[in-house]
């Protein structure tokens, strides 16, 4: 764990649980729902939500596809048991396969994006049925690199992890009591057998997190980053990914034709009052 990224776990957990509780109360709702993938990010969100809202007010949906790892399902169930939250299995194979029967030549990227959006569609349906807000599980590393599906796993009402790098997610997960098997395994979106995030990205999270910290948080220029020992190739690659994925981190751009335009000069905080 790089020294620069070390957190005070107790304080960070208290802050994030408080964020969830406060923001949920502003909506008048008391419940939350999230997708339990069997991975560390959703496990940490489940633990934070249980701490903030009480386990009885949190629902975790496990949404496997036919090629999903059996380990992912068992780890998702283990997380639900560890934090005492509700859980339900909602398979997505039938609807995803029904769609791609019309497009049999679709590649793995299209299929993975469809799965992510199908899962988010199910979460929002359950949010209506339960009177619950959808919690996001994308961390800061993923958001900065654009490693996520727009209107899929990147969609949510509240996201407690969006300002935590992946290595910080691991640190807080250990402190909060996420099952060790979940913390220890290689991060994966589980889109196909043997798929891992780091293999897709082409670099380790630990190296990327430290570089992104200096690039984004410290605003270091390329020459400074190279002086710190980062490879020029990796600096260029990550800077390109951050720039190219900006569209995923903002609301749709609205063409301005009036005096006050939503998202531009008509902006109020969530709790401004009516």
What does this structure look like?
The chain is of the alpha/beta class and 274 residues long. It has a single domain (3-194), classed as HUPs (Rossmann fold). The protein is built from twelve helices and four strands, in the order H-E-H-E-H-E-H-H-E-H-H-H-H-H-H-H. The chain has helices spanning 9-27, 40-53, 70-83, 93-100, 108-130, 140-145, 166-176, 180-184, 197-201, 205-217, 222-227, 232-244; strands spanning 31-35, 58-62, 86-89, 132-134. Strands 3-2-1-4 form a four-stranded parallel β-sheet, sandwiched between helices. Helix 3 (70-83) links the parallel strand 2 (58-62) and strand 3 (86-89). Helix 1 (9-27) packs across helix 2 (40-53) and helix 2 (40-53) packs across helix 7. The longest helix is centred in the middle third of the chain and has 23 residues, at 108-130. It is globular, with a radius of gyration of 19 Å.
Quick take:
The protein has 274 residues and is α/β, with parallel strands linked by helices. The chain has a single domain, classed as HUPs (Rossmann fold). 50% of the residues lie in helices and 6% in strands.
């Amino acid at each position: 764990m790089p020294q620069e990224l070390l957190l005070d776990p107790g304080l960070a957990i208290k802050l994030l649980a408080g964020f969830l509780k406060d923001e949920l109360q502003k909506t008048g709702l008391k419940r939350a729902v999230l997708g339990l993938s069997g991975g560390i990010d959703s496990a940490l969100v489940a633990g934070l939500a249980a701490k903030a809202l009480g386990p009885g007010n949190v629902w975790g949906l496990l949404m496997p596809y036919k090629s999903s790892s059996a380990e992912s399902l068992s780890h998702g169930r283990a997380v639900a048991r560890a934090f005492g939250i509700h859980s339900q299995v909602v398979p997505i194979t039938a609807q995803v396969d029904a769609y791609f029967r019309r497009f049999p030549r679709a590649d793995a990227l299209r299929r993975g994006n469809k799965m992510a959006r199908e899962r988010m569609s199910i979460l929002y349906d359950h949010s209506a049925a339960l009177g619950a807000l959808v919690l996001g599980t994308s961390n800061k590393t993923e958001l900065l690199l654009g490693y996520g599906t727009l209107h899929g796993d990147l969609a949510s009402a509240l996201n407690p992890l969006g300002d935590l790098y992946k290595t910080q997610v691991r640190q807080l997960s250990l402190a909060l009591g996420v099952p060790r098997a979940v913390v220890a395994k290689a991060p994966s979106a589980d889109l196909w057998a043997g798929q891992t995030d780091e293999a897709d990205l082409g670099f380790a999270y630990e190296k990327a997190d430290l570089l992104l910290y200096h690039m984004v948080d410290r605003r270091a220029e390329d020459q400074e980053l190279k002086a710190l020992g980062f490879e020029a190739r990796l600096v260029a690659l990550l800077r390109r990914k951050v720039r190219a994925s900006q569209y995923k981190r903002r609301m749709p751009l609205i063409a301005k034709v009036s005096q006050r335009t939503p998202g531009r000069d008509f902006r109020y905080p969530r709790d401004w009052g009516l």
